[in-house]
Write a structure and sequence with these properties.
Number of helices: 6
Strand content: 15-25%
Low-confidence stretches: none
CATH superfamily: DHBP synthase
Distance between the termini: 44 Å
CATH class: Alpha Beta
Mean pLDDT: 93
Number of domains: 1
């Protein structure tokens, strides 16, 4: 099923349809402020297993991240971080960044990597942020590519390939071909892991 949602003003009835799918353990493809992503309920192990099968990775190797609504929401799932990291995130979020932080015990073990770290996103797109806000907990996020490994900004292309694999695909308009900028904030210094659509000057 494909559902058209306008990021400028997501209709409550459409968001409720998405939340019903998530609550039932479904897997959803949705827009962000970078590439389209695939996600599910962070606390549903079967849903995470299904998501990982779709993207062809084992849960422990998938480097899954979560989408939070805002900075306050982030702090619920991470161990305390420095004032410098806080200021950096405050100045850049919502935005096309993935911040790697140390996860606390509210993040399921299946979901964390061996270092007990978690990628955090607060995308500058009202659709996933409203989903998280109304759902009441973070949702999983992983970039979705076509089955030949290519990235597409077109939700129609994604629908044609994944309509039989996932429970819902949100058409939020054209996406980006470029992923997020990934910053590791788990050490004494912030380390640039990948330069993406977000300006790297944020670490200065």
């Amino acid at each position: 099923m494909m559902l058209r949602i306008y990021p400028e003003n997501p209709a409550p009835r459409h968001i409720k349809m998405v939340l019903d799918v998530l609550s039932d353990g479904g897997v959803v493809i949705y827009p962000t402020d970078s590439v389209y992503a695939i996600g599910c309920d962070m606390n549903n192990q079967k849903a995470i297993d299904k998501l990982c099968r779709i993207i062809g990775k084992k849960p422990e190797d998938a480097n899954l991240a979560i989408i939070c609504y805002d900075l306050s929401n982030i702090s619920e799932y991470t161990v305390p971080f420095s004032n410098g990291v806080y200021k950096m995130m405050k100045s850049s979020l919502p935005g096309p960044y993935t911040f790697i932080l140390k996860a606390n015990n509210k993040v399921p073990k299946l979901f964390k990597n061996k270092k007990k770290e978690i990628g955090i996103r607060v995308p500058d797109n009202a659709i996933p942020r409203t989903m998280v806000q109304e759902f009441g907990s973070p949702i999983v996020t992983a970039s979705i590519k076509l089955k030949n490994g290519e990235t597409t900004p077109n939700p129609e292309d994604i629908y044609e390939q994944y309509k039989n694999d996932v429970d819902l695909i949100i058409d939020g308009g054209m996406g980006s071909l470029e992923g997020t900028t990934v910053l590791d904030c788990t050490g004494d210094e912030v380390v640039l892991i990948r330069e993406g659509i977000g300006e790297v000057e944020v670490v200065d």
